[in-house]
Amino acid sequence: CETCKQAVPSDCPVVYADRAGYSRQWHPACFVCCRCAEPLVDLIYFWKSGAAWCGRHYCESLRPRCAGCDEIIFSEDYQQAEGLAWHKKHFACLECETLLTGKPFALANSSLLCTTCSQSRV
C-alpha cells in the first residue's frame, strides 16, 4: 500500500488510481486526500504532485476560497487580507453589511467588522 506501506493480502480489495499508474495500489481505507485525509474510494479524486486530492482541496490549490461564502473565487478581482480572500461583494461588515473595500476594518476569527461595529462590540 502506498500510504501505510503494509502488504495488501491477495483476498483484500485494492484501489488503483489510473493517474498514478497501475504499479501503485492502496488499501481502500488508505486512499485519502493528501490534505484532509477524507476517504476518496467512492469520490472523484484529483491527482497532483504525486498525490490524491479531494475536489475541495484540489480547487483550493488552484484558486482562493472566499472567507465570506466558502466558494472558489474565479475572478481576478477579489480582496485579500491577512491570508484570507473574499469576493468583492462579500468583503463587508458582518453586522451592518457595509462594503469595506478601501475602508478601515477589524478582522476577528475570519469575521470582518467596520470600525463602528467593532467598537460597539467592546
From TrEMBL:
PROSITE patterns assigned to the protein according to its UniProt record, in alphabetical order: LIM_DOMAIN_1 (PS00478), LIM_DOMAIN_2 (PS50023)
The UniProt entry, under Gene3D superfamilies, shows: Cysteine Rich Protein (2.10.110.10)
**From the Swiss-Prot or TrEMBL record, what is one GO molecular function term?**
metal ion binding
Q: Which residues form the LIM zinc-binding domain?
A: 1-64, 65-122
For this UniProt record, the keywords arranged alphabetically read as follows:
LIM domain, Metal-binding, Repeat, Zinc
**GO terms for CC?**
nucleus
Q: Which Pfam families match?
A: LIM
The protein's name in its UniProt record: LMCD1 protein
What phylogenetic lineage does the species belong to? Eukaryota, Metazoa, Chordata, Craniata, Vertebrata
The gene designation is Lmcd1
